[in-house]
Design goal:
With 505 residues, the protein is mainly alpha-helical. 64% of the residues lie in helices and 3% in strands. α16 packs across α18. The radius of gyration is 28 Å and the shape is globular. The termini are far apart.
Length: 505
């Protein structure tokens, strides 16, 4: 009996000396939490190499986009920033009517100021630094989109969403341009990351609301995309009053307050540009002065064109996404419907919704089995063709001509007569002082809308193209008013050749 007791205690001591092994939990939620903790916290986590790749790719993207898209990428950002820092540059009628805010141009003005301080404000750096800065933000947005889908779905879906985003021809065409719509698209990815989507534990109400408010400051119509998501969040929130008082109100007040202060500094008076912008473009619908389209244009042309060959994958993905993602589809459809009621329509207006559309494309590609390789090859090759054409060929003449204008600045030091240019083209066809960076005399055909209600009003640009020779005779009747150089499209060369030869020779 004593031997049996001793052997029992020896066995107990031996077992106690061994390390304790805990049983692994097989809960899916527990495994997901462990996986997230291992991957690291924060917005980007351990995605360092992905960030480096994205930044490098968007930098190449920036260098390969050498064409013009819309005047706003120069006249509402770079030209304004140039005027803010160097005290010369043309401000269009929108700034005189206080429809635009200085918050977004202030970003580029900061880079201009640094270049000025360090005496590196060459014209090439003034052109490329803002675009490279926008490219960097676009790269971060690409990685953010990957991260949020990885958290909400899985790595496989996230990988195909990232691929869809990178090979989208319209994203490639717009993401590195200095227009407010590009900044909106960047903010879409960041807001989406922090949005408390139903059925997920990721999200931060304060951060996504602050970013939404900032997007509204950059471009007031940005709120259209997020209205369904804001309403959904409010509907699901148990403490609705706390959400309004402690999160919505502070985020809105801080962003609007910052905008008011910035605009007070540069306008010299207190002004709410967001209200002026919405009143002019949405309530009064005066933007139709610059063209209007049928109500169905976004459904039949706008959205299909910007999606390109992604469209069938988007439609397929709409049938596959989980129930929690349906609110995203509602947001996209809502955006297209609301913009359809505004007469003036452009492709870029719905561009900020594209990162969300790429989520549906990613679900489609992730669930393809038999045709996946062919589908991926088709998507890549079809978009590469559009990328190369729109980035290197389509509408590049209006930028190339500015290289000749830059040379006139160096010639000014050698010639006695100061050079001057007149752009006989549709208004705002080319960049202006931000692409020349010297205060030579430059003029262009202006086209401000008539705000007095005169139905017979015709702007200067329309008058010229209606009767080019008559307009030239009247405008250049006095020899003293002749510019040293004219810039025209080649279609007008034959029409104006004889008169131009008589006036300038």
């Amino acid at each position: 009996m004593e031997k049996l007791r001793n052997s029992f205690f020896r066995a107990r001591r031996s077992a106690a000396s061994e390390p304790v092994r805990l049983r692994k939990r097989k809960s899916t939620l527990y495994a997901a939490e462990c996986s997230n903790s291992e991957q690291g916290r924060g917005l980007f986590g351990p995605n360092t190499y992905l960030i480096i790749f994205s930044v490098a790719l968007r930098s190449v993207n920036c260098l390969l986009v050498q064409t013009s898209f819309v005047p706003d990428e120069y006249w509402q950002t770079l030209e304004v920033a140039h005027n803010m820092v160097f005290k010369y540059g043309y401000l269009t009628w929108e700034w005189k009517e206080k429809l635009r805010g200085y918050t977004y141009p202030l970003i580029f003005a900061s880079f201009y100021k640094l270049l000025q301080i360090f005496k590196k404000d060459t014209v090439q750096l003034l052109i490329w630094v803002p675009r490279l800065a926008q490219s960097f933000l676009a790269a971060l947005a690409d990685v953010t989109l990957y991260c949020v889908v990885k958290k909400q779905a899985n790595e496989e879906v996230a990988k195909w969403v990232y691929f869809s985003q990178l090979c989208s021809w319209f994203t490639w065409y717009c993401s590195t341009r200095t227009i407010t719509n590009s900044m909106e698209a960047v903010l879409t990815s960041f807001i989406f990351y922090y949005y408390p989507l139903q059925g997920t534990k990721t999200g931060s109400s304060s951060k996504y609301l602050a970013l939404t408010a900032f997007a509204f400051v950059v471009r007031p119509t940005a709120v259209i995309l997020w209205l369904p998501l804001l309403f959904s969040h409010f509907w699901q929130e148990a403490k609705k009053l706390d959400l309004l008082l402690y999160k919505c109100l502070p985020a809105g007040c801080l962003s609007l307050g910052f905008s008011l202060i910035v605009d007070r500094i540069f306008y010299g008076e207190w002004v709410v540009v967001q209200w002026n912008f919405l009143r002019f473009n949405v309530i009064q619908n005066l933007g139709s002065f610059y063209g209007s389209h049928s109500w169905h244009w976004y459904f039949t042309q706008g959205f299909p064109v910007i999606m390109g060959t992604h469209l069938p994958f988007f439609i397929h993905g709409c049938l596959l996404v989980p129930k929690k993602n349906r609110i995203l589809l509602i947001a996209v459809l809502w955006t297209i419907i609301v913009y359809s009621f505004i007469s003036h329509k452009e492709f870029r207006f719905i561009y900020p919704a594209m990162p969300i559309c790429m989520v549906f494309c990613g679900y489609s590609l992730a669930n393809l089995k038999i045709w996946k390789k062919r589908a991926v090859s088709f998507l890549f090759l079809s978009n590469v063709c559009l990328v190369l054409y729109t980035g290197l060929i389509h509408q590049r003449g209006t930028l190339d001509v500015m290289q000749y204008a830059q040379k006139l600045c160096t010639d000014t030091l050698l010639e006695k007569e100061e050079p001057s240019l007149f752009f006989l083209m549709p208004c705002h066809s080319t960049p202006f002082y931000s692409y020349v960076h010297c205060p030579i005399k430059m003029h262009f055909l202006e086209c401000p809308p008539d705000l007095s209600g005169n139905n017979t009003y015709i702007d200067e640009a329309d008058l010229f193209f209606k009767e080019p020779l008559t307009w030239l005779n009247i405008r250049f009747s006095a020899q003293a008013s002749l510019p040293t150089h004219l810039v025209i499209f080649n279609v007008l060369e034959q029409t104006c050749r004889s008169l131009v030869a008589r006036l300038f020779c």
